[in-house]
Amino acid sequence: MRINSILLGILFLLCQNSFGQILDEKLLQGKIRVDSVGVNGINILNLINGKITQTNSSGDFFILAKANDILVFSAVNLKTFKKTIRFIDFELGMLSINMESKTTELKEVIVIKNQINALSLGVVTKDPVKYSPAERRLRTARDFKPIQLLNFLGGSMPLDPLINKINGRTKRLKTLVVLEKKENYIKLISELYIKEYFTVQLGIASDYVNGFKYFIVENDNFLKVLESKNEERTSFFMVALAQEYKDILKQ
């Protein structure tokens, strides 16, 4: 009889402990401010349970968490911030987070009043288009078209385009422009999403995260969504591509 009582006592403690663990998590409410103002569209990721959410237009958010969970707050224009849920935070059910803007140190610029340039003199009607280094090299090489042979025969065509066509330099420069754009896309993705998002939320092994970034920038439809700057649509698209990527890795 005594043994039965002891077993029942142990069973009761185990059940109580399991029930307590179920109740450990609860929906916490929080508010994020930047310079005392609520901010919309900030990503919040719970590294422990993988839950993710965003702030509304007032900077408010709700997320399922428990004491000692780690929350990561991130946005393109803000410094990434991590917070461990304290027991007092969990008991109150409220979080107040202050984030800081990213600051970029600029070199000193001297502005000269009444600066004379082609635009101010009316030589051109608008500012010239600015090109990246790879694009400038491509424009210098200039693509060759067969019709330009007529100009060549007339002596009015420069030799550079023809030479570049023969030695394939223009084609290589076009490839460099494409690669440069893809590198910029990868840089943007890295700024929008921290590494834990890929490993925890998308379930991609840490060693394959960079490979996944190169994989998704090859998808033209994804790039269109990325350029739209709609983070919610971008995230949903990445979930589908992540599954496709993981399937490829299994092959």
Structure description:
There is one protein chain. This protein folds into 2 domains: 26-98, Immunoglobulin-like; 133-250, no CATH class. The strands form 2 sheets. Strands 1, 2, 5 and 8 form a 4-stranded mixed sheet that branches. A 4-stranded antiparallel sheet has the order 4-3-6-7, with no helix packed on it. It is globular. It is built from 10 helices and 8 strands. The chain has 251 residues and is α+β, with helices and mostly antiparallel strands. Residues 17-22 and 152-157 have low confidence and may be disordered. Helix 3 (133-141) runs antiparallel to helix 6. This is Carboxypeptidase-like protein.
Order of helices and strands: HEEEEEEEHEHHHHHHHH
Low confidence ranges: 17-22, 152-157
Number of strands: 8
Kindly report the average pLDDT value.
75
Helix content, binned percent: 40-55%
Shape: globular
Separate helix tally:
10
* Class per helix and strand makeup: alpha+beta
- Distance between the first and last residues' Cα: 59 Å
**C-alpha-based Rg, rounded:** 28 Å
